[in-house]
Amino acid sequence: xxxxxxxxxxxxxxxxxxxxxxxxxxxxxxxxxxxxxxxxxxxxxxxxxxxxxxxxxxxxxxxxxxxxxxxxxxxxxxxxxxxxxxxxxxxxxxxxxxxxxxxxxxxxxxxxxxxxxxxxxxxxxxxxxxxxxxxxxxxxxxxxxxxxxxxxxxxxxxxxxxxxxxxxxxxxxxxxxxxxxxxxxxxxxxxxxxxxxxxxxxxxxxxxxxxxxxxxxxxxxxxxxxxxxxxxxxxxxxxxxxxxxxxxxxxxxxxxxxxxxxxxxxxxxxxxxxxxxxxxxxxxxxxxxxxxxxxxxxxxxxxxxxxxxx
Length: 310
Prior knowledge:
- This protein has eight helices and nine strands.
- The chain is an alpha/beta fold.
- The strands form two sheets. A six-stranded mixed β-sheet has the order 5-6-7-3-8-9, sandwiched between helices.
- Strand 8 and strand 9 form a beta hairpin.
């Protein structure tokens, strides 16, 4: 039986944490094969929780998720790669080890063409870099190569380009785009960094407080800005602070508009409780709330992992 197309679907997906707070609420999406989807939303919107559910790292209600036609938790997933916070904080990439050895350990010799392509795209010095002596940005490049050497059909990315410089990130995004154009594969990417993303996503998902406020093909979603530009030829601000639209792509304008409206809808933080769950990371860095409390998970300095809404 041929493998199913790498689609990503959710059906009224709701997830509740053990303390009975809501992680995501009534999310229905249908992302086609070869799509490149951006998850957009403020901190605490539920993007990480959604990605972890799609990756099968949290048990969703039966029948509420299908990735490549199967339930990611009960059926297991072939060809699905999830790169998130626990992957970023893996202690092995901070030890005195060479890049060539690391890449070999994750299949570099099995997929030499992909290995060499990623080394070139990410500008990695295989011969001289030692992982304990490189910068955070250089370390992140090696991690990306490690995570992507083995061919994947669905790639779930949780803001893992934060340490890359502008050029490296542009090259990496271009490589991801080519992957979806030449292979049967799909990407879902949560990020706050919009540099070089104009024209990259095929679909947008706007999340707020655990729910999806809107989603669809990027061209359709962008009509919101096109319409406001037409309606504001006299110099209106498109819902932004005066001058904020200058220097931004239309995608950037749209995201700023969404986040501004979300902030107004949410109201002051002082009138709400915390909106997310945190990874306990032992001070190694992360995407938000951090704590040095928790049980040791095996890696030096890395604490027990909890959910975090980003």
